[in-house]
Design goal:
Strand content: under 5%
Distance between the termini: 71 Å
Helix content: 55-70%
Number of helices: 2
Amino acid sequence: MENYDPQKNTTEVRQGSKRNMNLRVLAISLALIVVGFAIIYFFYTATQPNPT
């Protein structure tokens, strides 16, 4: 790959992530979504009346 900016290497030109930041963002956001759904589920089940 040709590099037209002398200050950047080929990874930076391709906007690649050397430290896998994209994977971290996806993993953290997935975990937050799962926790959010768990909170909603427990709140929903806690507010339901007991069957008699």
